[in-house]
Design a protein that fits this description.
alpha+beta; Jelly Rolls; Arc Repressor Mutant, subunit A; 2 domains; six-stranded antiparallel beta sheet; 42% helix; globular; Tscrpt_reg_AraC-type_HTH; transcription regulation; Helix-turn-helix transcriptional regulator; HTH_AraC-typ_CS
Length: 287
């Protein structure tokens, strides 16, 4: 299966309330720890091997030609192993929470859940079949900037992917209404990562006092500064993998005027520098 058209290959594309897609390329094998998944995803691996380690310790491994379905509302580790003498490459599709709330889809999910035993953090699809592959590529095409179709049709194209996943026995859940305050802040910040997200502004958007905001974040073992920085670093990582933008431009895009300050923060978060994500060779680094 090919890796999609050039227009899709090196950019993150999406439509509000529908989904996002990208073609990820990585030059080194890296373990990317503690990635918060606020949305469910479908990932097709093209080169290398992807391993997902869920919070409960379960491992899910997908080889080239296979697909991974990841449930939202969880934190996972990714290990992207490169192909011999080459790169790691994958195409992914993130489903917006609004799409998962579609009335017909929820009804059909409920029917499937009555026959399944548990809600797994991920599933590996070893034989996806041509129908799911075709629906996946059609969805990616309409999410690209030159998709050329109305939002209503784009929505149906991405929804079709969800229905093919149902045929594989996989039902995806929308983000829980009772999601923690950190998850709510991630949703806010991810829409405008370069903005200045002050405590006053965030608390106003969430309709609570700053003291309540701090107290609730503390109860979840984090702070506003940590949550915002984590969202920015996750966005930066995606841009490094899925675009050809210079590191300095990515730093600006996630709210850092100083590339050096951005690089320090990135290394602190992930344990490796931004340049390592793209380069084809590197010295050993502990992960």
């Amino acid at each position: 299966m090919n890796a999609g058209s050039p227009s899709q290959a090196r950019e993150v594309c999406g439509r509000p309330h529908i989904g996002l897609t990208a073609h990820v390329v990585q030059g080194n094998e890296l373990r990317i720890a503690r990635i918060a998944l606020d949305r469910s995803a479908l990932i097709f691996v093209d080169r290398g091997v992807k391993t997902v380690v869920a919070g409960n310790g379960e491992k899910f491994v997908a080889a080239p030609g296979q697909a991974l379905v990841l449930r939202g509302d969880q934190s996972v580790d990714f290990i992207n192993a490169i192909a011999p003498g080459g790169t790691y490459e994958a195409r992914w599709l993130l489903f917006d929470n609004a799409l998962l709330l579609d009335e017909g889809y929820r009804r059909d999910c409920a029917a499937l859940r009555r026959t399944t035993r548990r809600r797994a953090p991920a599933r590996v699809i070893r034989k996806s079949g041509t129908a799911l592959q075709a629906a996946f590529e059609a969805a990616r095409e309409v999410l690209s900037p030159d998709g050329g179709v109305p939002d209503a049709i784009a929505r149906l194209r991405v929804l079709e992917v969800l229905y093919w996943l149902l045929e594989h026995g996989i039902a995806l859940e929308p983000q829980a209404a009772h999601s923690g305050i950190a998850a709510q802040i991630r949703n806010l910040v991810s829409g405008e990562v370069e903005a200045e997200w002050s405590s006053a502004f965030v608390s106003e958007r969430l309709a609570m006092s700053q003291a309540t905001l701090r107290r609730r974040l503390s109860a979840e073992g984090t702070s506003l500064t940590e949550v915002i920085a984590d969202v920015r670093m996750a966005a930066a990582l995606t841009m490094l993998q899925a675009t050809t933008r210079p590191v300095a431009d990515i730093a600006l895009a996630v709210g850092y005027e100083s590339p050096s300050r951005f690089s320090v923060r990135f290394r602190k978060r992930f344990g490796f520098s931004p340049s390592v994500v793209r380069s084809g060779s590197r010295a050993h680094q502990s992960l």
